[in-house]
Amino acid sequence: MSNINALIEALPKAELHLHIEGSLEPEQLLEFADRNKVDLPFKTLEEVRAAYEFSNLQDFLDIYYQGMSVLQTEDDFHDLTDAYLKRVAADNVRHVEIFFDPQGHTERGIPFDVPITGILKALDAAQERYGISYRLIMCFLRHLSEEDAFKTWEEAKPWLARIHGIGLDSSENGHPPSKFTRIYEAAREAGLKLVAHAGEEGPPAYVYEALDELKIDRIDHGNRSLEDDALIARIRDAGITLTVCPLSNLSLCVVDDLKDHPLKKMLALGLKATVNSDDPAYFGGYVNQNYRETAEAVGLTHDDIITLAKNSFTGSFLSAEEQAPHLEAIDRIAAAH
Ligand code: HPA
Ligand code: ZN
What we know:
This protein is an alpha/beta fold. The chain has helices at about 5-10, 25-35, 45-50, 55-70, 75-90, 100-105, 115-130, 145-155, 180-190, 205-210, 230-240, 245-250, 265-270, 280-285, 285-300, 300-315, 320-335; strands at about 15-20, 95-100, 135-140, 165-170, 195-200, 220, 240-245, 270-275. Helix 1 runs antiparallel to helix 15 (about 285-300), helix 5 packs parallel to helix 7 and helix 16 (about 300-315) packs antiparallel against helix 17. The protein binds hypoxanthine (HPA) and zinc ion. Hypoxanthine binds next to helix 4.
């Protein structure tokens, strides 16, 4: 194993950009379809894998929402989340801040309480089972209306003590952050953390809106910020974290080749980038694979890898006290490698 790959494996890491519904592996998709008697257009693993070829975000989202249809019960959501946690424990992930898409479930008649109960059951057991801490972020689907978002916000109210933040995902173009300014105001007043997908496919103007109107604490993706020098300077000077997802960017043709991925450039510009998997079952890899393939493609150094691992904790919503032991462990491992 190369020195860089050994370092990637050894480092404790946090994952800050992960859609739990996007961790639904083909095997589990077929298993849940079978146990819930859901009819899918594919019957074999080969057929499922063949469907996981995308040319843009919308292409992927169509398959992603179709895949969700097999998730029906609390146990399904528990098993899905537990499988993800078990998998990333093997990558030495020690903290996760995961998204879920309640509207992807309530829209098809699954009550709000079902996904969140199952997901939290797995997350609450994760410290003891896998040594993983967590935060839970509820995303709003931006292709739906503000009114729909407020309906979901009302359903979430009894759960606000268990939800740490809100996010914004789904089809970006044509659905600017400003569509949800009032939802973000309500969440801010409730004391929640705020993140949003911006600048994945959408223009730099959407990143400005996410900062100025939604007043977000962290940017999901943010790749297209690099088209605007003033925006780069602003994100750098404010120390705002970007949750970057290289293999997702490759699958969705945000970059044509991993060699063109801007991660190294982001670090060189002083931006606080992190490495994440987004929807690992669909995009071909969990966290370590994202590190490994990107390190090889763009030539990440030992110091780059250390910076990325540290950013994953300092960019998390853990307190400074909670971050400290992870940062110390990273320093120890960095010195030994
Ligand atoms: N972008 C937008 N919406 C999403 C994504 C993504 O990468 N994954 C799941 N929902
Ligand atoms: Zn995402």
